[in-house]
Amino acid sequence: MKICMIGPSYPFRGGISHYTTLLCRHLKKKHQVIFYAFKRQYPGWLFPGETDKDSSNKSIKEKGTENLLDSLNPFTWLIVFLRIRKDRPDLVIFPWWVSFWAPQFWTIATLIKLFTPAKLLFICHNVVEHESKKVDKICTRWVLSKGNYFVVHSGEDFRNLKQILPDANIKQGFHPTYEVFQSGMITKEEAKKKLDLTGKVILFFGFVRPYKGLQYLIAALPMIIQELEVTLLVVGEFWEGEEIYRSQIKDLGLEPHVRLVVQYVPNEQVGVYFSASDVVILPYVSATGSGIVQVAFGCNKPVISTNVGSLPEVIEHKKTGFIVNPKAPKEIADTVVSFYQDEWEDELVKNVMAEKDRFSWGKMVELIESFQ
């Protein structure tokens, strides 16, 4: 099959960029793939982090990728379409996660539908984005109505998409495992020494946004430290409200028990933070899915997560981690204490390692092939 892909890749950072690039890499093992990546993503004033560029020494990129699409230059949208028409692919793959890309993707998809026989597949990381407004839902319907096939990562997004497009041809897939970060793994002892940590370590990793529920994990920490000594390691950029979290930590007297690493972590350093941790915690208030789970699994770490979105579909309770209710600090605390006092770590790690094949990139490729 001849496939064209559109989406972010190096020099841009983040989960969607990693996902799209790794999917391209694995599709290439069986198919002819041409990847038209972004030349510019967001204008600087719109991006909430320090930069959307990847500063990693070990970037995730794929040979032959062409960075053509500029979000603010409609001429480049036309260039991408003309290249695709010349390529004559059987399938064109778009990622979908945020309505900012509605004008660009709608234009390219409409031209492809009008002037080529190619089928369009949308891989929906979020059918409707986090903290969305009515206009975001309108844009989503506007763009996704152009698709022939759809892959979603959760039952919740399957239902969301069916509400928008009742006749859509949808397959529910999964977020594949990011074993690519294993190259940065070291022993737990080495990692703790490198990060100047001692004792038990629980990890919250990734961009900090309100829906991720970090405040409930912080609220659980006083109950945890009544039972055992533990350090909460929080690693990631704060997209808003950093001072609110710092004030919560200070007001609860938790400063000796919390380590904040407020930065986007380069790829080669990701493994160090996961190596140092015993368990990864996702106290999300809402979610359709999370790439952080698959980073954790790729690093052989169990996960404690709330019962939202696809997370309970991916994390098997008392097998590869634990599922707790959202907005429930005491339940988080009790689960963390049980994880240590009942000595769950070795069993959960063994199960994570045994279960990873369920989420392989090869299986994702097979899912895409099944549409044909």
Task: Name the descriptors.
7-stranded parallel sheet, Rossmann fold, 6-stranded parallel sheet, 40% helix, alpha/beta, 372 residues
- Overall structural domain count: 2
Strand content: 15-25%
Distance between the termini: 9 Å
The backbone outline, from C-alpha atoms, is elongated
Examine the coordinates and then state which fold CATH places here, giving the name of the CATH topology of the largest domain: Rossmann fold
Tell me the Rg in angstroms: 21 Å
Could you describe the 3D structure shown?
It is a single chain. This protein is α/β, with parallel strands linked by helices and 372 residues long. It folds into two domains: 2-173, Rossmann fold, CATH 3.40.50.11930; 179-358, Rossmann fold. It is built from 14 helices and 13 strands. It has helices spanning 15-27, 74-87, 102-115, 134-144, 155-164, 188-195, 214-225, 242-251, 267-276, 291-298, 311-314, 329-341, 345-355, 361-369; strands spanning 2-7, 32-40, 66-70, 91-96, 119-124, 149-152, 170-172, 200-205, 230-235, 258-261, 279-282, 303-306, 321-324. The strands form two sheets. Strands 3-2-1-4-5-6-7 form a seven-stranded parallel β-sheet, sandwiched between helices. It has a six-stranded parallel β-sheet with strand order 10-9-8-11-12-13, sandwiched between helices. Helix 1 (15-27) packs across helix 14, helix 2 (74-87) runs parallel beside helix 3 and helix 3 runs parallel beside helix 4. The longest helix has 14 residues, at 74-87. The termini are close together.
